[in-house]
Amino acid sequence: MVIYKAKDYKDMSRKAANIISAQVIMKPNCVLGLATGSSPIGAYKQLIEWYEKGDLDFAEVKTINLDEYKGLSKESEQSYYYFMYHNLFEHININLNNTHIQNGMAKDEELECDRYNRIIHSLGGIDLQLLGLGHNGHIGFNEPDQAFEKDTHLVELAESTISANSRLFDNPDDVPRYAYTMGIKTIMQAKKILVIVSGEDKADIVKSAFFGPVTPKVPASILQMHNDVILVGDEAALSKVIN
Ligand code: GLP
Predict the structure, then answer these.
(1) Is 219 a pocket residue for ligand 1 (Cβ < 6 Å)?
(2) If both were cysteines, with which of 126, 152, 204, 240 could 33 make a disulfide (CB 3.0 to 4.6 Å apart)?
């Protein structure tokens, strides 16, 4: 694993965007695995800026997102589709047909998971997977104690995840209890993984995920077994692992 220490959120975002840009430049038709949450917003802003300057071209890029809430439609402001569209896709020249997110409104959960797994397969796997890190070590919505070997599946969200994400909803009771997520197996099959972390509140989980035992109790700890992981964190998030 390579660790890059950034000064602050802005610097972390710029470093992360640099790595994503390098991937897009080296392989213009690459498959990017994308994430939502507060962590990647700055990196997406930076990519948009470079696109607007004419330094990046997303015309052939394909994307596949980690997760989506069950029960939220694309139009819902809290859906991850809405997040991706407004924080990235509508600002760049990506072909929306080449962007993929689970359908939170699918009637049949099993069919939806199968459909998503088939898409990942047909894309030929993921070149670069971007990940944020939940406070309990979740990646995507792979919560503690789930099997490491899964593909896309439906999960019941942990209470701590529901309360962490309730900040984005008007009413905490509106946070969906279930979500679709790409599984750990699929994430581990990505050729390269880029993890971004910011803030003092992530310092403990960074330590246990990357320097503690590999255990399903801390889903992100499995990343220690991947041979091409880049961790970009700001000083606060890395404060318990490097000086
Ligand atoms: C959410 C998302 C994850 C995200 C994580 C951290 O629950 N499902 O994909 O990486 O929590 O979010 P944040 O970056 O806002 O801390």
Answers:
(1) no
(2) 126
